[in-house]
Amino acid sequence: MVTKKTMKRIIRSRDNRVQLAQERTELSEERTLLSYVRTALAVIGVGLVLSKLYIGNWRWITLITIVLFLISIIIIYEEIIKLHKLRFLRLAKKRKN
Known about the structure:
By secondary structure, this protein is an all-alpha fold.
């Protein structure tokens, strides 16, 4: 026979597991965002290196650098928006419960 004390302990351990799972999810989302930022910075670096290496045709290299910079800004922006949406949904779910 299961006592009330045992049931409370079981429920508490489930709550702890759920909370730890949510924390792991949040940390993985932040890690993903940081990896996208790192990738965007690498793309910006490639654009800058190309602009320094190829001195001959400045128009094309400048255009490529600007395009790579814009792509990296878009990548960062999209990931930040995605992270905020996920956090907003998580907060709404917590308030609902």
